[in-house]
Amino acid sequence: MKKEDKVAVIEQLTSIVQEYPNFYLTDIEALDAEKTSALRRECFKREVKLVVVKNTLLKKALENLTEIDFSPLHTALKGNTAVMFSQVANGPARLIKDFTKDSKGEGRPQLKAAYVQESFYIGADNLTALVDIKSKNELIGDVIALLQSPAKNVVSALQSSGQTIHGVLTTLAER
User: What's the rounded mean pLDDT across residues 45-70?
Assistant: First the structure.
């Protein structure tokens, strides 16, 4: 690869990393063509961008970003690496878990590391923790449900007590 091409790839990777707040480093080495195509289709459905990269070029792209120190991820940049970029924090983790459920989590793709919600997760043992991370929309939904709960209880209590009083008055009127 020519130096100009490497520079262009590094710039492209740098812009992609800046565009997406979450990314996962995965190993997809042992996948055959059919499974790789299935993985890419699933990534497309779930709005996850899958990019196979050279470790040295990704490392240089991460070094170009001075706002965040990505050095904890350097240990995971060995062997074949594919990067899954996503706007949703747990999207790629759920995809990996669903894709490997037939092999009991031992198949490929396998998590090497992740940068999610400004935190680093190194190793495949962090996959369940990443699956359990709630997205922003899920957290907003939980907060709204918690805020609505007391109001719903008050409204239902007022409605039921109003019906009870009405029922008592109706019974007394009939007697």
Answer: 90
Q: Are residues 88 and 148 in the same domain?
A: no
Q: Which residue reads 């890419």 in tokens?
A: 40
What tokens appear for 54 in the block?
């050279």
Q: Model's pTM, two decimal places?
A: 0.74
Residue 53, helix vs strand vs coil: strand
CATH number at residue 107: 3.30.70.1730
Query: Among 76-85, 114-123, 134-143, where is mean pLDDT lowest?
Result: 134-143
Kindly state the percentage of the chain with pLDDT values over 90.
29
Biggest alpha carbon distance in the chain? 99
Which of 26, 28, 31, 22 lies closest to 112, judged by CA?
A: 26
Answer yes or no: is pLDDT of 105 > 70: no
Shared domain for 126 and 144, answered yes or no, is no
Does the CA dihedral 21-49-47-135 come out positive or negative?
A: negative
What distances in angstroms separate CA 148 from CA 17, 145, 162, one per listed residue?
Answer: 38, 5, 21
Torsion from C-alpha of 31, 37, 40, 45, nearest 10 degrees: -130
**Residue range of the domain that includes 101:** 3-133
Say how far residue 156 (Cα) sits from the centre of its chain: 37
Are 96 and 143 contained in the same domain? no
Mean pLDDT of 79-107: 84
